[in-house]
Amino acid sequence: MTDGSGSPAEVAREALDRLVVDVPDFPEPGVVFKDITPVLADHDGFTAVVAALAEHGRLDDGQVVDKVVGMEARGFILAAPVALALGAGFVPVRKAGKLPRETHAVSYSLEYGDATLELHRDAISPGDRVLLVDDVLATGGTARATRELVEACGGIVTGLAVLMELSFLPGRETVGDLPVSSLVTL
C-alpha cells in the first residue's frame, strides 16, 4: 500500500511511530511494553504493516516463500495476513500442548522464564521456503527455537520479519546468520 507517500516500509514505519503505545512497568517493573493493538485497530496502519512485512517473503528469484510461520501469540496476528498477501500458507507455532497432532518441540529461555514451542510435524514439507514473522525481536530465543522447528521438518528459513527490533538486547546475535528485517529498530 503506497499512495505516493513512500515505500511500503516507510508507510509502515510512520504507522508504527504514530500508533504503538509504550506501557511502562508491564509485565514487570522496569520493562516498557510496546503495545501494538492500536496498529491492529487502525485499518490503514495494519494494511501498511502487512504490506511491508510481506515484502520480505518475496525472494530474489521472483518467487515467494511457500509458508509464513507466526509465533504465538502476536506473531499469528501478523503472519496470517502476510501469508494471504503472498499467496502462501500460514503455519502457527504454538506453546506446548496446544496443537492436536504429532509435533516437533523445542524448549528455550526467554526474557521472563523458560518456554517450549511446538509445530505440527507435517506443517512444513521438506524444501519449503519459510518466512518467520513476529512482532518484536528481543532476546531472539523465540525466533531461534522457531527456526529449529522449521528445520526439523526439512524447511528452509529464508528470513525473519518483525515490526520492531530491540537493539539493546541480543536478538540478532541469538539468531545467528538468519537474515532479519525490522520495520523499526529501537
UniProtKB/TrEMBL annotation:
Compartment(s) where it occurs, according to its Swiss-Prot or TrEMBL record:
Cytoplasm
Which gene carries the instructions for this protein? apt
One GO location term (cellular component): cytoplasm
Q: Which organism is it from?
A: Nocardioides lianchengensis
State the name under which the record lists this protein: Adenine phosphoribosyltransferase
> What is known about what this protein does?
Catalyzes a salvage reaction resulting in the formation of AMP, that is energically less costly than de novo synthesis.
- MF terms in GO: adenine binding; adenine phosphoribosyltransferase activity; AMP binding
The segment(s) forming the Phosphoribosyltransferase domain are 41-164
Q: Give the pathway listed in the UniProt entry for this protein.
A: Purine metabolism; AMP biosynthesis via salvage pathway; AMP from adenine: step 1/1
UniProt similarity note: Belongs to the purine/pyrimidine phosphoribosyltransferase family.
**Organism superkingdom:** Bacteria
Q: What is its main location?
A: cytoplasm
Which GO BP terms apply? adenine salvage; AMP salvage; purine ribonucleoside salvage
Subunit note: Homodimer.
Question: Which keywords annotate this record?
Answer: Cytoplasm, Glycosyltransferase, Purine salvage, Transferase
Cytoplasm: present as a keyword of the record?
yes
**What's the Enzyme Commission number for this chain?**
2.4.2.7
The record lists the catalysed reaction(s) as:
AMP + diphosphate = 5-phospho-alpha-D-ribose 1-diphosphate + adenine
